[in-house]
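Colleagues,

For the teaching module next term, I've prepared a clean inverse folding example: a structure given as C-alpha cells, and then the sequence designed for it. I'd like students to try predicting residues themselves before seeing the answer, so please don't circulate the second half yet.
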C-alpha cells in the first residue's frame, strides 16, 4: 500500500500550514481548507492528491515553507522527500515522521510520543516549549542527522533527542527531565538552568559554568540504556561502559548530569 501522495502543483509564493493534514484524515483530503499566506485555500489547489490508504502520507519534493507537517499526529506514518518548515510534529503523540531534508524552528515542540527522523539540520528550539508555553517535549524520540539551532531541548520534560551534528547556543536550557545527546560541538551555555535529566556529549566544551567535573565513572546505566534504546545504542556504541560525569546546573540547584562519552565508549 503506497498511501496518499501529495505532489505540489507548482512553486509556493507564501507559507503553507499543513497542520491537520494527517494519515487517515476523514473526508475528501483535496477539499480540506488550509491556510496559505493570508488566505485559506483547498489543499487540492496547491497539491495533486493521489494514492490511497489510511496509514501513510507522502509529501513529494518538500519545501521550507511547509509548516505544521505532522502536527498532532497520533498514528501512521508521514514521509517528506525534502525540507519542511516550522513546527514539524508539534504536539504529536504517536506515529512516525521521516524528513529526508532539513526542518525549521520548533520541530517536535511539545511532542509526547512517536518518532521523528530528520535527515538534515533542524532549526532553533528543537523539542522545546512553543511560544507562550512552559512545557517542552515530554516523550518520544527525535533523531537529527545534521546540526540543530539554538535552544535545542529547552524545557525538555522527557523523551530522547539525538543530534548527530552540532548544537546551537543554550542547548538543554532549563531542561527538566529526559535525554539530549549531541555528537558534535556545543555553541555555549549548554545546560544553563538544567534541573534534572542527562546530556550525552563528546566533549565538555560549551557546557554552562554551573557544571562541575565529578570524575570518570563506570556506569551500569550506560549498559542499560544501550539495551533499552536503539537510538542511544547507536550514539553510545555497543561496548560503552565508562563516562566522565559533570553535575549541574549547580547554580540553579540542579541535579542533572552531562556524561562525556567517546564513540568507542573509551575515554
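(Answer key — instructors only)
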Amino acid at each position: 500500500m503506497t498511501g496518499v501522495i501529495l505532489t505540489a502543483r507548482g512553486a509556493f509564493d507564501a507559507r503553507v500550514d499543513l497542520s491537520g493534514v494527517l494519515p487517515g484524515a476523514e473526508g475528501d483530503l483535496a477539499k480540506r481548507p488550509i491556510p496559505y499566506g493570508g488566505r485559506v485555500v483547498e489543499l487540492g489547489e496547491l497539491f495533486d492528491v493521489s494514492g490511497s490508504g489510511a496509514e501513510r502520507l507522502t509529501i513529494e519534493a518538500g519545501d521550507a515553507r511547509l509548516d505544521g507537517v505532522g502536527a498532532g499526529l497520533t498514528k501512521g506514518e508521514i514521509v517528506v522527500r525534502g525540507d519542511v518548515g516550522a513546527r514539524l510534529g508539534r504536539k504529536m503523540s504517536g506515529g512516525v515522521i521521516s524528513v529526508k531534508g532539513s526542518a525549521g524552528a520548533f520541530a517536535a515542540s511539545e511532542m509526547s510520543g512517536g518518532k521523528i527522523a530528520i535527515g538534515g539540520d533542524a532549526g532553533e528550539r528543537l523539542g522545546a516549549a512553543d511560544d507562550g508555553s512552559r512545557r517542552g517535549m515530554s516523550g518520544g524520540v527525535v533523531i537529527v542527522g545534521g546540526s540543530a539551532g539554538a535552544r535545542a531541548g529547552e524545557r525538555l520534560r522527557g523523551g530522547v533527542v539525538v543530534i548527530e551534528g552540532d548544537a546551537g547556543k543554550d542547548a538543554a536550557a532549563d531542561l527538566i527531565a529526559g535525554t539530549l545527546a549531541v555528537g558534535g560541538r556545543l555553541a555555549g551555555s549548554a545546560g544553563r538552568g538544567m534541573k534534572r535529566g542527562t546530556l550525552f556529549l563528546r566533549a565538555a566544551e560549551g557546557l554552562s559554568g554551573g557544571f562541575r567535573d565529578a570524575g570518570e565513572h563506570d556506569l551500569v546505566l550506560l549498559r542499560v540504556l544501550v539495551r533499552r534504546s536503539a537510538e542511544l545504542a547507536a550514539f553510545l556504541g555497543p561496548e560503552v561502559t565508562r563516562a566522565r560525569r559533570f553535575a549541574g546546573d549547580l547554580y540553579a540547584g540542579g541535579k542533572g548530569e552531562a556524561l562525556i562519552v567517546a564513540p568507542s565508549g573509551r575515554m
